């Protein structure tokens, strides 16, 4: 996979110049399905990079939302997605008060595309890439009108899990990985635009619902559905 450093350049004055994406597929290059696959791969890059940087789940989620919000407003063909992703990781660290150094982001990204390679030297290429990450951060801020703080489903899912746990047998709960599956499904929601299309509450309840159905879990809670009961708890 082609890395970001080979697909961008920085102007001598520090202004950002993002290389146009290569036209390798004609009309297929602008196909919606192809763009969705691109966003899926780039968000997976954000998540894996976040893990290697020791980021918490919420900052990683914020980085993904920033990425999707940005490309909701601009054409994916006009900007290098992986550079945007690196800048989103950098910005998300600031927003969620888990600051990540640009040097660490660049080195982790470099190793992501060049497995087993040594860290980049602090040469001209490194500083140009660093400037591009910072300038792209400003571009993202302007495109989003500086609205970069988001409410995530995590707190709702935690509340719903605790509520559902109180409705089932303790031994049955321990034998069924409903919680782990719910969190995994929640992470998957950030690969695509679902995370910006629906409310945090709906995403949280949907992931829990799917996890429960996956294991055939049944909750006997009377006349109301279980999600109506936990909403009132």
Our count of helices gives 11
Radius of gyration: 20 Å
First-residue to last-residue Cα separation: 48 Å
> Helix amount, in percent?
55-70%
At the fold tier of CATH, the topology name of the largest domain is Cyclin A, domain 1
Mean pLDDT: 84
- How many structural domains does the protein architecture include? 2
Q: Tell me, what is the CATH class of the largest domain?
A: Mainly Alpha
CATH superfamily grouping of the largest domain: Cyclin-like
Approximate strand percentage: under 5%
How are strands sequenced across the largest beta sheet? 1-2
- How are helices and strands ordered from N to C? EEHHHHHHHHHHH
- How many strands in all? 2
Biggest β-sheet, characterized?
Answer: 2 strands, antiparallel
Secondary-structure-based class equals: mainly alpha
The CATH architecture term of the largest domain is Orthogonal Bundle
Q: What is the 3D form?
A: elongated
Low-confidence sequence ranges: 4-26
